[in-house]
């Protein structure tokens, strides 16, 4: 049963573990009976409070992951390979995380048990005693309600350690008078120092016990899920799993000077052979890397260096941006939409499926924008400034298409897609919330040129333009016909002419006027909400 004095609402806040007995006799956590650990995120052994609690005193441990067909199985109607909710890159990354977790568990005398079906139904039907990391996303909130209600009715103990974030968003919101802080600086002042990570080192784990009639399988392959070999011509170069996360973290931390001098917004968005960031965001998203362990690793480097950058631009600062968005999302109803969202400006975005499709399918005719969208489709990842470029272009910068439409594309295709961060950044880049300098626009023709004047990034992801001379690579429609012919790329035939966009800047002028009017009309309302007490660093946000 619930511990005396425990608050059921707090027990299901950002990182929690639950125990329940849906199949047989209910027993207490300390009775030495079997424990079942429900992995969702938190796909790791290190710094995993749910694992530590689940294995403590248990005679048997059942580590379980539930394959949700809606999340994993092919959707033939999707615009890119994958399910209705996730692109094939993210599904593949998740499977790699599960294979690695299974191997790490086997090294400790256990194994990962794969079940398939609706997670709530599967858990309630099959699991005897459960621990799982709690999640703030609405999908998991609804899922947890079902499981929690069953647990309460059955008199089952619930335990909720925080491990997917540095801080418990509930605590931050309570410190701020019941509302989430809406500026980074106010969040940092409230948050303080995070708790240390667990130092538990396992030599072994309790063995898996009798599985009864539960339909257990191994981690499936892409083919097992129904995907063919030709679904996608190129996959993400980033491999999933805790082992890969710790290896990548170790490689980053070895370069102490780079860690100490890390500073956003500096960084090259066109660097693809060796990305200019840590590329640890996918591992944080799936919980392959503990944010507390990451935080401590950075602090250890700082201690050995005479000086280092500070938040919000430092590497620690990026982790705190993540916490800021998690807290804002958790404390804001309807955070993932414009309507009913008290912190989101009500902007009359265009509903133009043709413009959205051209952007999504990399057919805008602007090579910098299209190359980024190709990288998104092929790799499921791109540099944060590249994300900024295409998000600004779709919304306030050029097309004035609703940020929710772009959010949905990122949500499905990114391997590091994170509900709170994705929605927060789309509101930010569209100047719907958090960031208010709507006249600061990423140019689709000159921004990328600052970092990559030869256009190597464009040539890689848009090979149709690989022979275009550098003076035309960002604006190929300006090349004389003879140059286009020599480059084997006729604009309007081999590569789109950006005809649906006004190259003279009328669109930008029109939409900037619209944004100006909206801001003037909303100024009094948002000032009352302390909405404009934001930071000068607003443009550079948390894509690690």
Automatic annotation (TrEMBL):
InterPro entries xrefs: Crypto/Photolyase_FAD-like_sf, Crypto/Photolyase_N_sf, Cryptochr/Photolyase_FAD-bd, Cryptochrome/DNA_photolyase_1, DNA_photolyase_N, Rossmann-like_a/b/a_fold
A Pfam family this chain is assigned to: DNA_photolyase
Record's cofactor remark: Binds 1 FAD per subunit.
Domain Photolyase/cryptochrome alpha/beta: 33-166
Domain of life from the UniProt record: Eukaryota
Assigned protein family: Belongs to the DNA photolyase class-1 family.
Any one GO MF annotation of this record: deoxyribodipyrimidine photo-lyase activity
Biological processes per GO annotation: circadian regulation of gene expression; entrainment of circadian clock by photoperiod; nucleobase-containing compound metabolic process
Site (Electron transfer via tryptophanyl radical): 349, 403, 426
Species annotation: Glycine soja
Cellular component terms per the entry's GO annotation: cytoplasm; nucleus
Protein name as annotated: (6-4)DNA photolyase isoform D
Cofactor: FAD
Alphabetized UniProt keyword annotations: FAD, Flavoprotein, Lyase
Chain positions recorded as FAD binding sites: 277-281, 318-325, 416-418
């Amino acid at each position: 049963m619930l511990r005396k004095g425990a608050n059921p609402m707090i027990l299901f806040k950002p990182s929690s573990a639950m125990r329940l007995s849906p199949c047989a006799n209910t027993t207490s956590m300390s009775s030495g009976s079997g424990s079942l650990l429900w992995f969702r995120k938190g796909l790791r052994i290190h710094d995993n409070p749910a694992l530590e609690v689940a294995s403590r005193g248990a005679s048997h441990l059942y580590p379980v992951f539930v394959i949700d067909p809606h999340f994993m199985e092919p959707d033939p109607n999707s615009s890119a390979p994958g399910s209705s909710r996730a692109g094939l890159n993210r599904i593949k990354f998740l499977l790699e995380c599960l294979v690695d977790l299974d191997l790490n568990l086997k090294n400790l005398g256990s194994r990962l048990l794969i079940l398939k079906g609706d997670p709530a139904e599967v858990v309630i039907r099959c699991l005897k005693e459960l621990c799982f990391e709690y999640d703030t996303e609405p999908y998991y909130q609804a899922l947890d309600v079902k499981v929690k209600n069953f647990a309460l009715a059955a008199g089952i103990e619930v335990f909720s350690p925080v491990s997917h974030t540095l801080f418990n968003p509930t605590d931050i919101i309570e410190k701020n008078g019941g509302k989430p802080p809406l500026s980074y600086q106010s969040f940092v002042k409230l948050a303080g120092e995070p708790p240390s990570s667990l130092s538990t080192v396992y030599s072994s784990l309790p063995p898996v016990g009798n599985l009864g009639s539960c339909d257990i399988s191994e981690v499936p392959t892409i083919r097992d899920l129904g995907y063919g070999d030709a679904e996608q011509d190129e996959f993400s170069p980033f491999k999933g799993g805790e082992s890969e996360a710790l290896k990548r973290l170790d490689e980053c931390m070895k370069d102490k000077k780079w860690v100490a001098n890390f500073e956003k917004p500096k960084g090259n968005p066109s660097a693809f052979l060796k990305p200019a960031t840590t590329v640890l965001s996918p591992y944080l998203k799936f919980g392959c890397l503990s944010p507390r362990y990451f935080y401590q690793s950075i602090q250890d480097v700082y201690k050995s260096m005479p000086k280092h950058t500070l938040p919000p631009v430092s590497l620690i600062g990026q982790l705190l941006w993540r916490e800021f968005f998690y807290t804002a999302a958790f404390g804001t109803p309807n955070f993932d939409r414009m309507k009913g969202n008290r912190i989101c400006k009500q902007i009359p975005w265009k509903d133009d499926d043709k413009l959205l499709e051209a952007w999504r399918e990399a057919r805008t005719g602007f090579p910098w924008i299209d190359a980024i969208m190709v990288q998104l489709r092929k790799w499921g990842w791109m540099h944060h400034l590249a994300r900024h470029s295409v998000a600004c272009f779709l919304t306030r910068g050029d097309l004035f298409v609703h940020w929710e439409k772009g959010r949905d594309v990122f949500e499905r295709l990114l391997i590091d897609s994170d509900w709170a961060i994705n929605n927060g950044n789309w509101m930010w880049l569209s100047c719907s919330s958090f960031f208010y300098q709507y006249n600061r626009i990423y140019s689709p023709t000159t921004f990328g040129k600052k970092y990559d004047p030869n256009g190597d990034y464009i040539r890689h992801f848009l090979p149709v333009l690989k022979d275009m001379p550098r003076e035309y690579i960002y604006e190929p429609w300006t090349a004389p016909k003879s140059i286009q012919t020599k480059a084997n790329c006729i604009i309007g035939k081999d590569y789109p002419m950006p005809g649906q966009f006004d190259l003279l800047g009328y669109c930008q002028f029109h939409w900037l006027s619209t944004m100006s009017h909206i801001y003037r009309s909303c100024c009094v309302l948002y000032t009352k909400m302390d909405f404009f007490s934001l930071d000068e660093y607003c443009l550079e946000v948390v894509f690690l």
